[in-house]
Design goal:
single chain, 353 residues, alpha+beta, 5-stranded antiparallel β-sheet, 22% helix, globular
C-alpha cells in the first residue's frame, strides 16, 4: 500500500515511524516532511496550502491512503490569548485592535470566552463516523517556560497516561463528549472519519471542552504512538473504509514522556541553520522525532524552525520514562537550544482530591 502523510512536524515524523512498521506498507511519502522524515520516507516538496499540488502528487505516486497531520489543509485557525486578569485581557485587545494590530486583518474581530481553571487533558479517538475507538489520555505543556510561565507555544512536551485523572471520568468523557460529537455529526448528515481530538479542561464542575481538533495532537502524538502495539496502517485503513469496529487495537501499559527541544527565543524570534549534534548518541529505545529540521546533502541535520525535536522515552512508570527522556535530551546539542525541565514532574502528575 502506498501512503502519503501531509505535514512537516514531529507529529508527522512519529506517524511515519509507526506506519513504517506495517508489513502492509509499500512506499511512504511525506509532503513536505523534514530532516528526520527524509531518513525513513520520501519527502515531497509541497506548500500545505496548495491542495491541488498535493492531490497531483498523490495521483502521480499512486497513493492508496492520505493521512493529514496538520489541520491547516483542512481548516484555517486563529490564535487567541489566555488571560488571567482583566488588565491582561484589555492589553490583548489593544494589541489586536490598537496601533500595533499584531495579527493584521485576522485580528480585527475579538471573541471573549470564559476563563476556565483546572487541568488540561487530551482525549484522542479514532472514528469511522459510527464506531469510536478511544486512545489513552495524554497531557501537553503549552507554555514556553518551567512552571507554566511565559507565552503559549505549539507544545513543549507531553506525557501519557495522566495518573491524576480520576478513573470514573474517563468513560464519562468518551461517552458524553467524544462519542456524542461523532453521533451528532452523523445525525446532521456530516459524518466524520479520522482522528477526533477534544482538548479538555477538568474543572471543579467537571470536564469542559476547550476545542475540538480533526487531527492528531502535537506533541501528544509523539507519546501516544509508542504506546500503540497494533498496526496503525490497518487502523487507518479501517477508519477510511468504515470498518473500525473490526479493528483490533491494543495499547501498552507503559508510560511515555516527550520533551521538546526548541530554538532559543521560541515562540518569539529565533535563529535557524544550526547543526545538530548527538542525534546518534541516544540510548536504544529512545525516539527522536524531528520537527523544525533540514538535512544537507552531506547528511548534516540543521535546525529550521521553532520546535526542533521531540525526545521520547517509554518505561514501566512515568518517572522512569521521564528520567530516561531527560537523560537523552542532554545528549543532543545545537546552538541556543532551549527546553522545559519540568515535563511530567512528580508534583504535576499527583492526584488532586
Amino acid at each position: 500500500m502506498n501512503l502519503l502523510i501531509v505535514g512537516s512536524g514531529a507529529r508527522e515524523h512519529a506517524l511515519a515511524w509507526k506506519l513504517r512498521q506495517s508489513p502492509k506498507l509499500t512506499d511512504l511519502f511525506i509532503a513536505p516532511g523534514n530532516g528526520g522524515t527524509a531518513a525513513i520516507a520520501t519527502n515531497l516538496p509541497a506548500d500545505l496550502a496548495d491542495l491541488e499540488a498535493i492531490c497531483t502528487a498523490a495521483t502521480h505516486h499512486r497513493i492508496d491512503l492520505v493521512i493529514v497531520g496538520q489541520e491547516g489543509p483542512i481548516a484555517a485557525g486563529l490564535v487567541v490569548f489566555v488571560c488571567d486578569t482583566t488588565d491582561e485581557a484589555l492589553r490583548a485587545v489593544d494589541l489586536m485592535l490598537g496601533d500595533e494590530r499584531i495579527f493584521g486583518p485576522a485580528g480585527s474581530t475579538v471573541i471573549v470566552e470564559e476563563r476556565l481553571s483546572g487541568r488540561e487533558v487530551s482525549a484522542h479517538a479514532f472514528t469511522d463516523g459510527l464506531a469510536v475507538a478511544p486512545m489513552p489520555f495524554s497531557c501537553d505543556y503549552k507554555r514556553a517556560y518551567d512552571g507554566d510561565d511565559g507565552p503559549n507555544t505549539g507544545g513543549m512536551g507531553a506525557y501519557s497516561p495522566p495518573l491524576w485523572l480520576d478513573e470514573p471520568l474517563e468513560p464519562l468523557i468518551h461517552e458524553t463528549i467524544t462519542e456524542a460529537a461523532v453521533q451528532a455529526m452523523r445525525e446532521e448528515g456530516a459524518p466524520y472519519r479520522g482522528v477526533l481530538y477534544p482538548g479538555l479542561m477538568i474543572t471543579p464542575e467537571g470536564p469542559r471542552v476547550l476545542e475540538f481538533n480533526c487531527r492528531f495532537g502535537d506533541p501528544e502524538t509523539q507519546v501516544l504512538l509508542p504506546r500503540l502495539k497494533s498496526d496503525l496502517l490497518e487502523i487507518c485503513w479501517a477508519v477510511a473504509n468504515n470498518r473500525l469496529s473490526e479493528a483490533e487495537i491494543e495499547w501498552s501499559t507503559d508510560a511515555c514522556v516527550g520533551v521538546v527541544i526548541a530554538s532559543g527565543g521560541y515562540p518569539g524570534q529565533y535563529e535557524t541553520g544550526f547543526p545538530i549534534a548527538g542525534l546518534n548518541s541516544v540510548e536504544p529505545g529512545v525516539f527522536v522525532f524531528h520537527a523544525g529540521t533540514t538535512r544537507d546533502e552531506d547528511d548534516t541535520v540543521r535546525t529550521s524552525g521553532g520546535r526542533v525535536l521531540t525526545v521520547v522515552a517509554s518505561a514501566a512508570t512515568l518517572q522512569e520514562a521521564r528520567a530516561i527522556a531527560y537523560r537523552n535530551v542532554q545528549r543532543i546539542h545545537f546552538s541556543r537550544a532551549q527546553y522545559r525541565r519540568d515535563i511530567a514532574a512528580p508534583a504535576q502528575d499527583a492526584r488532586v482530591d
